[in-house]
Amino acid sequence: MTKIHPFTGAWPVFLREMLILRRRMPKQLASWLVSPLLYFTAFTCAMGGVTVNGLPYIDFLVPGLVAMASMTQAWAIAVDINIARFYWHMLDEFMTCPLSASGYVAGETAAGIVRATGASVIIMIIGTLAGVHVNLLAPGLWLALVLNAWFFSGLAIMMAMLVKSHADQALLSNFVITPMAFLGGTFFPLDRLPGWAQHVLELLPLPHAAQAMQAAAIGQPVRFLSCGLLFLGAGAAFTWAILSASL
């Protein structure tokens, strides 16, 4: 019997996802554009003239939107996996191939990171055209972006393997991802919330990603504590996803 090594098949899984993404690219670009444009229009009109830590609100908003997009787009791979698993039964076919669970998870995770990065770049372009003055090429911002996308890609794969139906997947999005997107320090600073709420949100990954990106964008040093926590969380989610795919 041929021994399957760890991460065997990661590249074919990743390439398959990229070919699908290329075919969907016109629609994907449109979907990546709609949400940021709505948020820019709504929040810049509503918060015009407001400053956050001495900076125009838009300079605070753009890195926050990047953090949110890296989360939501990485999490979005769960829907494709869910459909492939329940309707096309493609996961069963994958498991009959010389493909390791770690290879499958690594390929899907890499695809999730690419999707998250693409959506984030669109937001950066829109922000630049809108006159944002922060440094969107700061290394700390990109480090936090990739770590955040890695965490939520791993989490998406894990949950897609464990849920029993599309309804369960929708519940996770409605009760976890959507509230975190709005309360994760993306649209307003967390210090505006009560102390107990701040302590609760500090247990979640998105606030750390948003704060790391916002700090890097205005020239502050890399927030290694936030990035370290994201790295540990991403590693744990990735490992758990592999275990879930092995079941």
Describe the structure.
- The structure is a single chain.
- The chain is mainly alpha-helical and about 250 residues long.
- About 75% of the residues lie in helices and about 0% in strands.
- It is built from ten helices and two strands.
- It has helices at about 10-45, 55-75, 75-85, 90-95, 100-130, 140-160, 165-185, 195-200, 205-215, 225-245; strands at about 50, 55.
- Strands 1-2 form a two-stranded antiparallel sheet.
- β1 (about 50) and β2 form a beta hairpin.
- α5 crosses α6, α6 (about 140-160) runs antiparallel to α9 (about 205-215) and α9 (about 205-215) crosses α10 (about 225-245).
- The protein is globular and about 60 Å long.
- The two termini are about 20 Å apart.
- The relative contact order is 0.16.
- The model has no long low-confidence stretch (mean pLDDT about 90).
Task: Pick out its properties.
247 residues; mainly alpha; two-stranded antiparallel ribbon
Give the secondary structure arrangement, pairings included.
Elements: H1 10-46, E1 51-52, E2 55-56, H2 57-75, H3 77-86, H4 90-95, H5 101-129, H6 139-162, H7 166-183, H8 195-201, H9 205-217, H10 224-246
Antiparallel strand pairs: 1-2
Helix pairs in contact: 1-2, 1-5, 2-5, 2-6, 2-9, 3-6, 5-6, 5-10, 6-9, 6-10, 9-10
Please report the distance between the alpha carbons of the first and last residues. 21 Å
Average of the residue pLDDT scores: 88
Silhouette: globular
User: How big is the Rg?
Assistant: 18 Å
What proportion of the residues is helical, as a percent range?
over 70%
Strand line-up in the sheet with most strands: 1-2
How do the helices and strands follow one another from N- to C-terminus? HEEHHHHHHHHH
Number of helices: 10
Structural class: mainly alpha
Characterize the main sheet. Answer: 2 strands, antiparallel
Low-confidence parts, pLDDT < 50 over ≥5 residues? none
- Total number of β-strand segments? 2
